[in-house]
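A common beginner's mistake is to predict each chain separately and then try to dock the pieces by hand. The better habit, illustrated here, is to supply every component at once so that their relative placement is modeled jointly.
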Amino acid sequence: MDKAVLLALEDRCTYEEPPACQSFCPLHVDARAIAQRLGEGKAGEARKALDRQMPLPQLTGWLCEGACQERCPRQGLDAGVNLPLLERFTLRNSKTIKPFPLPATAHKTAAIGSSLATLCLASDLSRKGHKVTIFLTGPKGGSLLTAGERLPTGVLTEAFELIDFLGNAWEEAPAQTPEFLARLLTDYAAVFLDLGDPSVDPPALGLQATELALDPLTSGSSRERIFLAPPATVPYPFLAAASAGKKAAGSLDRLFQGVQPQVAREREAVFETTLVVDVSEAQPAPPVRPADPLSPTEAEIKAEAARCLNCSCRSCLSVCPHLRHYKGYPKKYAREMYNNIITAYGIRTSNILINSCLECDLCKEVCPNQADVAEFIRKARKEMIDTNHMPAAAHEYALEDLLSANGPDCGFFRPPPGEEKVSRVFFPGCQLVAGNPTAALKTYEFLNQTLGEVGLMSGCCGAPARWSGRSALTGSVTTELKKTWESAERPTFILACPSCQLFFQAELPEIPFVSLWEVLAQNPPPALIQSLELTLHDPCATRYNEKVQTSARRLLKTFAPGFKEQKFSGRLTKCCGYGGLGAQANESLGLEFTLDTAAAATSPLVSYCAMCRDRFAKAGFASLHLLEILFPTGNLQELAQRPAPNLTQRRDNRRHFRQLALTSVWRETLPEPARFPHELVISEELWAKMEKRRILRDDLELVIAEAAKNGPLFFNQKTGRSLAALRPRQVTFWVEYFQDPQGRYLIHDVWCHRMLAMGSPGEGAESPATLEGFARTGGRV
Amino acid sequence: MDRKLPDMDIEGWICHKCQTPLTMFQVNVTYMGASFEVELPGCAKCGVTMIPEHLAFGKMLDVEKLLEDK
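With all components supplied together, the output reads:
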């Protein structure tokens, strides 16, 4: 995978961007972390967060003017979070950890003036061993001496003591003259001019105003080796002074190491964050006014900390169970998935992360930067296939189902009965036919009667192959489909399934198609008004197809006027769990999706995608397909309650649809479908187990047929049961059964595995990592 | 994967073809390019081996999943 693909996604996800309070703080203090930790009652942890960014925090923390409050999103609601209050509480309730003084390096700096900027510079620089000599041009502490009530007694003295402890020196400055400055520039590696100290006199030192332009990134001036702190007249003077001292220390440390001071410092000045925060659901909370402002209680501090909105971008995480499940966010996932793909050897722990995505695009829709996770997933899956690293188990069943739907006993195309001309072809899609073959056929008959010259084609468009990243299989399915289309003189397809529609758009651009829902909205069947209360669910594949969504509403309005909307609908609709074959690769997460999507509905759901209908039903929700309302095949209450057909019934339904259509509509005489010559008795419990393991009755029949022909492999003398096994593809099926006197096979148990054991069925067969070989053989062996 | 499968219940099972009781022996098992030995019940005469359900849906499935993520 091209690294640019990774970078493009990473760039769009702003989860790791700092909140506005941090980006706008001249020191970039993590105010969010401080508020969160204090909210948890952890002043010590809050102190760690303060110490990470603030120079000389035991002094600066008392002086901070709270520039962040201006940009706090709370400002628009009531007032920004009072960070200075939180900082001071933190300082009062935490210990200062004394640093370990390092031996002096050869790099010495002179500072003129002794206000906050100089103290921050000396503190930061001497922690790295670069000692500072502070030349006093007036009283020790400069403007700090007038900070008055901001500083509790002893704080300034303790700061001076720390400066001493770190090995810095104080000297009385001689008269401030150009010669004095020249001497310092000769004796010291650099000079720091603290203009925040009112006793510092630049003109006396021979410095022109033009030479005192402060570089906001480095604290440099236009004179080489002279660094500056701004005068106390700037906004937020203490924060500006601390920031200048901190940045100058950073510049000097770089210089001493032979690195350009300007390198990689873009974000050291105040900057605009790209983090997008949704505060639409934030509740107003007036700022806390402590009874004693100098000594707020812990409860007051917790209340103020609780006002912090903990700004972060969670737009996608709030709507997608998949993104939440792996405890990350798109930027982190993109890196994990990229590493997974470029791994030549070793564990690919992100395979399941890649294969669990529904590719439904909801995260892109809610992302403020439209980060396209689904597109990344598509590329990742394709790459896994191309490099032979896609585990076959992930999508094997869905692909087998595709091949079966297009196989000789399910797939077919017919021009309209008694006609040769085909203007349109109704393509119900493999899942509608599997879910409700009768409704699909009624729809076809209505279309042909209403529009005329409508043919019928049953099969799978190939979407599962595309979802699973298999270009070769996708190509072979579309080639067959195109051949049929061309032989019928290029009719327009009428597509019932929104996923087919997306697939046609992407893979079959030459075939004209129209949505069934638009056709029916323009040519509605006679309305039978239903009094049933319903909740409309938009299939995720219609997210960007307003026309189809509008058509579905028009139809439903006529047939079931009282219907409600899902909380997430239209462009924000959620996937039922089937999309992207997510539930195929990760069944438990798939169910979480289904529950997440269906749970908010207060009445039976109605969808215009067969997979949504059946997945909702499988998870225990009453649900209908829109066609079942338009062309009822029974009592709607009962239809809504009917369970989703199991995997075996789905296959049977496709066969039944072909049989039913060809015999009843085309009046063809078909050979009686081959019936399995033995009767299998399968308990409800066993059916459930088979469903979970994706074992079909067809699989059992293959094993039993083999056993009936050549005998079972094992026999149990105690129970009288036989055990037979067969490996028809990359799975071995075992069936334990008892044959009763009537010749019926009473199935006791069924299981399967993919591993190949010496001496067990299939020995000697290769065990490829991909399904392509399987696909080429056309399905079952 | 454990080589020994102590809970293996092979009581009563015989090879249908050879009509001989099953015994335990070392069998080579392969999946996705990996191969290892496990002890499985089988017929000592014709070599046919049995993979019981608790193995197929237990340890074998765990190892299959592990290998699929390699």
